[in-house]
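[[Local backbone shapes]]
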Amino acid sequence: MSQPIRIFIADDHHIVRRGIRDLLDTEPDFTLVGEATNGQEAVDAVSELEPDVILMDLVMPILDGIEATRQIKAQHQGAKILVLTSFATDDKVFPAIKAGALGYLIKDTGPEELVQAIRQVYRGEASLHPTIAQKLLAEVAQPEKRPSTSDPLTEREMEVLKLLARGLSNQEIAELLVIGVTTVYSHVSNILSKLHLATRTQAALYALREGYVPLHEREE
């Protein structure tokens, strides 16, 4: 049997944490490794526990979820954060994605959707509530000028970018291109650096915006 997915919850509402705990208990491959009632507790605990997936509320005392996400990603680049919040406003959505969240769900999401999202984020895939996806696609449609770079993407980096934008994980990209996962990770890091981006989600949006990957080619 494979190792269970280790999950951490950061939310200041006890009833929300309890509901999520009860849901996680119904999935044999999920295990809860810790909880936090504010962003600072989350940052400190994640460094110690190193969970596979972090469920992050955005509005919390002491340190909000956006800043907590930013600090966790700065300390643990591979951290996989799934935002679970009541807010779908632009001032929450875009900062959270830019901070490094891989998924963004609204708290009215059904149990099945949350379970699926946890598995997707665990695999390194983006998972977005339909409302959030619409906002991001609208953002993609807006023209944007990015600073030119004197260090363009290599042919291989462009291949990786296109596959990343189709929703493939590092493991899937490695298998498709017949290269090592660490090599894929290195290519992704180079892509983010060259394009002045912070996350895989931003890179995927960039590829869509530039027309490298038509929307209908994205894998669900």
In short: Residues 215-220 have pLDDT under 50 and may be disordered. The domain at 155-217 is CATH 1.10.10.10 (Arc Repressor Mutant, subunit A).
